[in-house]
Write a structure and sequence with these properties.
- Chains A, B: Its EC number is 3.4.17.19.
- Chains A, B: It catalyses: Release of a C-terminal amino acid with broad specificity, except for -Pro.
- Chains A, B: One of its GO terms (biological process) is proteolysis.
- Chains A, B: Belongs to the peptidase M32 family.
- Two copies of one chain form a homodimer.
- Chain A is mainly alpha-helical.
- The first copy, chain A, has two domains: 144 residues, no CATH class; 352 residues, Neurolysin, domain 3.
- Chain A contains 21 helices and three strands.
- In chain A, strand 2 and strand 3 form a beta hairpin.
- In chain A, helix 9 runs parallel beside helix 10.
- Chain A is globular and about 65 Å long.
- Chains A and B meet through helix 1 and helix 2 of A and helix 1 and helix 2 of B.
Chain lengths: 497, 497
């Protein structure tokens, strides 16, 4: 029975790999005329996966295995728990309602695009209201988790996460970051960033990206780099973890820092233990933990002074006229430039968390009842003014900027900020074991850093829950002071505050 | 019922599209470590397709529809016929035997690779014997078609084809080609081909290939060009027809003529009528007809003098030092160079059919009983000596050179030569409707040529059988004299015989 169950779950993963190849292909150059038929192909395979995931046969296997839970090997036991959770979530929603939701979601996504184009929230509002209503209905089926409707959503992206925790940690982070940002603005001195926006030919960016990935220990025998419009990392199977990027010839950071970020995601997936091969446990354990790996690479390695002491010549090699006479110190100041702005995905390392807090508070209030969708633009703008000191002039640069809400992904945004706090906490714990972190960056020897992360995070895949990983790997629960201390020290120094 | 049947067949095509993307991806850069798991994915999806193709549900639908055949729309009627044929072929073989065959086939393919590497037929012989035995067993289930076991195999690649027809037409072609080849050898004068083997940088070859594809009317909104090891064309769906090529920096013909060849295959698929979208009829009707399109493009367009009068500057543009001071006439003589050789895939336009005839005769005698597998190397070498005047020195350059037999693809080889005869016959028929063919090539206006082929061949997909297409499109059955006349005229002129 145990083997039948495992084979059944592996078969689902086979369909998921096929779906992942189809998605990857669609986003890396599939010819446009073929996409209409492609949507049907994805529809058929997705329906097959859903059928397998909700089949009574699976329910029966779960019940049988749960009865003998204590005698099961650890991996199988965890597999049963995870599959049971997903099975119940899937089964509780009536199929007809889920199909209706899927159709309305497609309309909502299209309406959001239109609305953003027209900078007109009114176009999106009725669809957004439907998405919220659907999610509230689903929460009714799923049941409230940890005491509030919004916590049910949070739990699906970050198991165990609650508004009580987030209110606390976000409050502590904001108490440090907001004044820092104000000081930088008041101070008025900004580094010269001209060199960032000079011409860097695409071919050179691609070569530099490939070399950087190698240096970061990305395994090209188990992955590849391709070009896309909205960069992503995708897991096809444990030994096929792909990254993508986008080349902007007048802002190389899009490709280079994007690649470092996606590399962090990819290295997590490439280093999951072999024993989980082919199982649904062979993936990152949560959105927040995944983001902790990408942000560890992007910020704690990719903005490290010594890392660039070692790697800056690579940029000079591929864009000599841009970087030939730039001192690495000036480059470091430029890439650590911080300034309040309106658009999340263009935000810097310091102000980014404030963008997330705005979204979190709005989602929380939408689902816990104190905010109506129609009032979002006003609240959005007020919060931006309060936290960042800037106010959107229209909905496109305000409440319409992100697509997440259009497909009903409420509860996702906090993962980005959680990942940042986790990353700082991993770094703090790592410093005890690897006191010569800067020296390793300076010599390009990143293997010990990857190995530490593999030991504490990667290898476990989804075997352990986020809080369990964090507790075991750092000796404590979520603690935002590592992030605030890091930001305080770094920005006080860089801006001589 | 009709709609249910059509939806059922479309669903199978969805899985086939997923499989095609998986194959395409494996052959255009999928990371090597991921391939082991990928094989399982392909296994699961293939099993699902086979299950759908052999389900009793499908058999019942076919029986019901066959009872009302005369009232069905034309496309549905043809669909029922084609699906019935495949259904019976699939159903007659016991599943356990087919699975055993599949396993032994994998071993046979591996053994062939080993044997070729070691130039030792003995390694491959026991596996080849098994493949032949399996096919003979299957023929027992399928039944003899057109009076002999080998005809059953021929019919699966080229419906209606028989050894009686092939003996006749191959005899007629050989009667012209063999003496021509002997004359060229006796004559002893060969054009200068040095310019073919000069350095042509890969990036330039890629750019020239892309431009050539555009000029040949390949639709990049419904396709793309990628790099691979063994070039192929693959149909994902009617609007996603991909080509691949291989770049040899010291023999540009591999990429450029390869691209023209695959373009012929691709244009066939891109121009099938929209009414066949999503159905298994939305594909080429046979191997031979498919090859007639690739060879039409490769030889009748791609070796046309006026075509190069128009396109030679493109080669000069991307490889100036190679072609800058070459006269287009000398280039034409070089690319039409003919000389007896041992390796089929490196053979020239004139001698190629002789290579095919060797394989045909061996297959025919193997299945109709007068030849044993163990005697193949000797017979192979004797036939090469007889037809081409050259004798292999070992099995790697002899009987082991092609992989087709290792996976049991007997009956396939003749398609290559049939395609060539068909192509010459299309060209002859086209000349009546398009008397200014050369002028169109000279001005780069290839649309009327593609439109003619679309009208006579492409649009029908698999709605019509090969002989039906040929009869309706050219007014007669297979007639090899168009090929022999073409070769006679061309090579007598080029070699001043």
């Amino acid at each position: 029975m145990e083997q039948t169950f495992i084979q059944y779950m592996k078969k689902i993963q086979h369909y998921n790999e096929a779906l992942s190849v189809l998605y990857w292909d669609m986003r890396t150059g599939a010819p446009k005329k073929g996409l209409e038929q492609r949507a049907n192909v994805i529809g058929t395979l997705s329906a097959q996966v859903f059928e397998l995931q909700t089949a009574d046969e699976l329910g029966n296997m779960l019940t049988t295995l749960e009865a003998q839970k204590e005698t099961l090997p650890y991996i199988t036991k965890r597999l049963v728990e995870e599959v049971r959770e997903a099975y119940d979530l899937n089964k509780r929603i009536p199929v007809a309602e889920f199909e209706q939701f899927t159709i309305e979601k497609a309309h909502s996504e299209a309406a959001w695009e239109q609305a953003k184009e027209a900078a007109d929230f009114a176009i999106f509002l009725p669809h957004l209201e439907k998405m919220i209503a659907w999610k509230k209905k689903f929460i009714g089926y799923w049941g409230e988790k940890n005491g509030s409707p919004y916590n049910t959503l949070l739990d699906q992206f970050e198991p165990g996460m609650t508004t009580a925790i987030l209110d606390d940690v976000f409050g502590k982070v904001r108490a440090v970051v907001a004044p820092l940002v104000q000081q930088i603005v008041a101070n008025g001195k900004q580094p010269n960033t001209d060199m960032l926006f000079k011409h860097f030919p695409k071919d050179g960016q691609r070569e530099a990206s490939l070399e950087l990935l190698r240096r970061l220990q990305y395994d090209f025998d188990a992955g590849r780099l391709d070009e896309t419009v909205h960069p992503f990392m995708i897991e096809l199977n444990r030994n096929d973890i792909r990254v993508t990027t986008k080349y902007d010839e007048y802002d190389f950071r899009s490709a280079l820092f994007g690649v470092i970020h996606e590399c962090g995601h990819a290295i997590y997936e490439q280093n999951i233990d072999e024993s989980l091969t082919g199982l649904p446990l062979c993936t990152g354990t949560s959105m927040g933990i995944h983001e902790s790996q990408s942000l560890f690479y992007e910020n704690f390695i990719g903005r490290n002074e010594q890392f660039w002491a070692y790697n800056f010549p690579l940029l000079q090699q591929y864009s000599l006229q841009q970087f030939g006479d730039v001192a690495v110190d000036d480059f470091l100041k430029a890439i650590n430039f911080a300034k309040p702005s309106l658009i999340r995905i263009e935000a810097d390392e310091l102000t980014y968390v404030l963008h997330i807090m705005v979204r979190y508070e709005l989602e929380r209030d939408l689902f816990n009842g104190s905010l109506q969708a129609k009032d979002l633009p006003q609240r959005w703008n007020d919060l931006y003014e309060e936290y960042l000191g800037v106010r959107p002039q229209n909905d496109a640069e305000g409440v319409l900027q992100d697509m997440h809400w259009s497909d009903g992904s409420f509860g996702y945004f906090p993962s980005y900020a959680l990942g940042y706090m986790y990353a700082a906490q991993w770094k703090h714990a790592m410093d005890k074991d690897i006191p010569n972190f800067d020296e390793l960056c300076a010599t390009g020897d990143l293997a010990p850093i990857r190995e530490w992360l593999t030991e504490k995070v990667h290898r476990h895949g989804a075997l352990k829950k986020p809080f369990e990983l964090l507790q075991e790997g750092t000796g404590e629960g979520l603690n935002p002071t590592y992030l605030t201390a890091y930001l305080q020290e770094k920005y006080t120094r860089l801006y001589a505050l």
